[in-house]
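yo, Double-strand break repair protein MRE11 is done. seq:
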Amino acid sequence: SFSVLLRDDEDTFKILIATDIHLGYLEKDPVRGNDTFVTFNEILDHAQKNDVDFVLLGGDLFHDNKPSRKTVHSCLESLRKYCMGDRPVQFEILSDQAVNFHYSKFPWVNYQDENLNISIPVFSIHGNHDDPTGADALCALDILSCAGLLNHFGRSTSVEKIDISPILLRKGRTKIALYGLGAIPDERLYRMFVNKQVTMLRPKEDEDSWFNLFVIHQNRSKHGATNYIPEQFLDDFINLVVWGHEHECKIAPFQNEQQRFYISQPGSSVVTSLSPGEAVKKHIGLLHVKGKKMKMEKIALETVRAFHIEDIVLADHPDLFNPDNPNIAQAIQAFCMEKV
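structure:
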């Protein structure tokens, strides 16, 4: 239900939503090398200025599985600048954090660590670019998590069965069950859903009083018979799905008629491919949740480099392009340069 919330108060969660930041993309490019870092700073600056309760990221914070020293350093620099400070965090965690963060040596949320001074907690699942690899199954997010600057959640360690246990948050009278599932190869996850091997656990008490928020990083559009996750696979008790991985910005929540939940697809904050979806204006979201009601505010990103894409059919210009012309390559080049 999308009712306009009258005002922000002690019962209202304010959550900054972003995904697919791809830190380090084209970092060696002399012109575009710093684009991802500049936009990440803009995102965190919006979080600070809007006085959000926490930041929620939907995967692919890093572009490379083993990000460079420069990329990791820049990320740590930004998180330390914007997310540490004396501002008190206004919500509490009700779930068993040893379950939520069981793969960490520090299984608790960073703002409750007495050795750290966190003003804006950041929660993130991993994407397919920065997923856990190697014998120790570590990913770049684990470095940020170990440093106490980010809370990595939604990690599944079993290939037989996935039990998604939510992080239970409470602010005043509003309660959020935050579910996350880091990227898993689509065919495998599709098969696990079909075989009923994926379970989303519900809170034991007053399960209908929770706002259920689910973050996922998989193919949403169909790339093959099983190379995506159909929306109807997801449980119908969910209120809002934040769908990462897809780069086109469709951040305004859209209702799935069959399951009745809403889906927000924030899209990436940087262009990484020459596709029409990437040309859509990039946004992040400011999600307000009060009780079971929500409102998504779109925030346009101003530091994203302009990107335009257009198809040109040479056959539509027979007067300009004659196949028999030996200088046709130069003619096409001149035509394209004029377009640009």
